[in-house]
Amino acid sequence: MFNTYYRQCPAEHYPYTVQPGDTLNLIAFRLESSVMRILTANPGLDPNNLQIGQMICIPSCPPNHVSRIIERGDTLFQIAQDYGVSVASILEANPGVDPNSLRVGQRLCIPQFGGAPDVIGLRETITAMQSDIHMLKGDNSVQQTHESNYGSSTQTTRVTSVTPSEIRFEAVPVTFAGAFRGHFTAGRRYPYYQDASMGGRRTITVKDNFGVWHSFNYREQTPQA
Questions:
Q1: Which residue ranges does the record assign to the LysM domain (predicted)?
Q2: What distance in Å separates the CA atoms of residue 31 and residue 59, rounded to the nearest whole number?
């Protein structure tokens, strides 16, 4: 008989019932953990003598990390912003994760630098920022004009990349200089409107995460002969 001790799992762990054909390596791979972490969470567990129906505890994340389940539309950059950490730190905490191939339902371990992240406080700060921005938008004639002209646009463009110094949109083959990280999230789609004037000069006006319209001017590129 196997040890029923494993039915009581500590915090940040969850129970798993051993299935026919299971090995510790297979369980670790399927549940995105590691053999060493599972053995540490289950003192006395014999990896060479797993019993069908045996309950073992699976650590959801290592110490000083929290779990995050991937939802549709999530990107590593957006998740990093939510928790106030870097993309590199998330990749380091989740070896083997492909940042370009996240799966809905996949579990990530997010490092807690300087203690547990105050997610509620972060959301309150963002809400306050949005309130201030909405108030400023109401007093800004440019924003009012953009909203009246472009607010009904059904077109959307995806942000293909955003860095501290530049941004690029799917709709136009141009990279724009400027610090737009935080305003736009790579991989997300945003309402936009495209306009043109004489001389090949064009404008793409895109709404950001806070509902603010940004206009980007560029010159139409003529094909080389």
A1: 14-58, 66-110
A2: 10
